[in-house]
Amino acid sequence: LHSQGQAFPFVFSTVNKITQGTPRWQLCYLQAVINSLSESYAPVWASRHFFGRSEQAHTYTFTDRTIDLGFTIFANSMRQLQNVYERVAWLAQQCYPDYDNTGRMLNGPIVAMRIGDLFQYKTGIIRNLSYDWMFNGGKWEVTSGVRMPQGCTVTISYQVIHENLPTRDTDFYGGPGGGL
């Protein structure tokens, strides 16, 4: 796996990145402090009322699975400051599509996310991405040419797109060691 060298794998990668007509993998390794990690399942049911029935009849439609994640990327050294900037910029880029050479949109960005062994390269889309640049009270690097915050708190709402059709028997996490 791509993140085997990390003590705690925290990685985003492209799934459908196209450059000049050729698929291209990009990986974004994050050295960050995870502040929050939550997950929600939202089943949607269509409801109909029938005359003569005292309650509605419900038909299952679909379920959305969302992972909400908050983490802080920060720099302990000048060299790491560039990494903060690159990681933040890369994540923002995953909110925009690719275009062909005529300016027509090819596709929206689909990415995969790995957080430790709990979420092992879950394919999905970024629904919402926000940055709070007030890391450590808004501490900035003041060296000319790199005047920027020394860290950033990132909040992501991530919509999971399952690779296989999920059922009531699906193992959503894979368990210790990648499977039970």
Descriptive account of the structure:
It contains 1 helix and 13 strands. The protein is mainly beta. The chain is 9% helix and 47% strand. The mean pLDDT is 87. A hairpin with a 6-residue loop joins strand 11 (140-141) and strand 12. Strands 4-1-9-10-13-6-5 form a 7-stranded antiparallel beta sheet. A two-stranded antiparallel ribbon has the order 2-3. The protein has a two-stranded antiparallel sheet with strand order 7-8. The radius of gyration is 20 Å and the shape is globular.
Top keywords for this entry?
180 residues; mainly beta; seven-stranded antiparallel sheet; two-stranded antiparallel ribbon; 1 helix; 47% strand
What is the gist of this entry?
The chain is mainly beta. Helix content is 9%, strand content 47%.
- Please mark out the parts with pLDDT under 50 across 5 or more consecutive residues, or reply none: none
Strand order of the largest sheet: 4-1-9-10-13-6-5
Instruction: Give the overall silhouette.
Output: globular
* Radius of gyration (Å): 20 Å
Separation, N- and C-terminal Cα atoms: 19 Å
| Largest sheet data | 7 strands, antiparallel
Beta-strand percentage range: over 45%
What is the H/E order? EEEEEEHEEEEEEE
**Structural class of the helices, strands and pairings?**
mainly beta
Number of strands: 13
Kindly report the average pLDDT value: 87
How many helical stretches? 1
